[in-house]
Amino acid sequence: MNLPNQLTMARIILIPIFMALLLIQFPKGQPIFPYQDFVAAMIFILAAATDGLDGYIARKRGQVTVLGKFMDPLADKLLVSAALIALVDLGHVPAWICWIILAREFAVTGLRAIASADGTVIAASKLGKIKTVSQVVAISLILLHDWPLSLFNLYLGQPLLYVALFFTIISGADYLVKSKKLLKK
User: Fold this and answer.
1) Which of 108, 107, 98 has its CA nearest to residue 128?
2) Which residues form a coiled coil (predicted)?
3) How many Cβ atoms are within 10 Å of 47's Cβ, its own excluded?
4) Which of 142, 129, 122 is nearest to 171 (CA)?
């Protein structure tokens, strides 16, 4: 259990803490403590930041492991899925957007599993990385109610969610094309 894998596991452990802080309220819909949603957003951002950090450390130190290759993308999917589902529950994200993003994640995971069983690795693409970053930025802004941009009457969380949806669909199609080519071998 090297440092990159510990960071990945920490990301997974932070998910229920994030969810509890975002969703648990008093019966009349009041937060349990002031700035509860802001603290939840900070935990989401911290957890998301470990994604780039664990990969960087693993590559730099030569600590890339089979466990890390499996757990890192799983941790990302769990974090983004939890946030989107919670935001749907809170009425901040349309359910259909959440469904498309989750469907893409399940499909890509399935394609990777099939390819892996055949001895083929479908590596993360640049489009997939752009998709992840755009999702994290959009979710973060929505969680923060567009703060600090809202101080200047800029509300970019929802528009960026549509950008993330675009990259989700495009990167999913890219994986589908790559997997067809690789699985035909």
Assistant:
1) 108
2) none
3) 25
4) 129
